[in-house]
Sequence to fold (203 residues):
Amino acid sequence: MLPDTDPTHPALLQPGVHHPVNIIDDALLRLEALIFASEGPVNIAQLRQAFDDSISAAQIKQWLELLAARQNNRAIELIETAQGYRFQVREHYSSLIAKVWPERPVRLSSALLETLAVIAYHQPVTRADIEHIRGVSVNSQILRTLFDRQWITESGFREIPGRPALLVTTKHFLNAFGLVSLKALPPLEDVKEVLDTFNDSLS
Fold:
């Protein structure tokens, strides 16, 4: 097959090389199909399989930027999370979705969100740390829920009497709230705003 008609030809898949429009379109359609069909985020390694691993991660990222740009003025957007790329409905339409499907939004309790925020911003922390920061005891069901959702995990023990477990957030937490890394967390100056951001991310 000629290079100008083969989207996987090495000569057409190098960063910095000009690609015919039809080749770019084909590549973007492949990426779009994979991400759309996946139940969860799709990472770069998985996306490279669409081209038999014949192109670099850098090229995939360039095409993902183009794909994200093509979502402008659409109700969905392409976002990057800690576990990969996914499509999601823009926040502007969350109230519309809630109106049509009122059961869809997942509203978490203030106590659970406050506990999650303490862990996210102060990790690694023990249960006693959480209680000290919040000023109230931690309900075991709250921690169980966070473990069940795989938003937190244990990461060693503090070397003090009793060796309490140290709690940290996970990649599942980052993915659930649309974050690439912990550095993307909103500033902690306004705790209420942080908690509202968490809840809105799940709407």
In short: Confidence is low (pLDDT under 50) at residues 1-15. Strands lie at 76-81, 84-89, 152-157, 165-169.
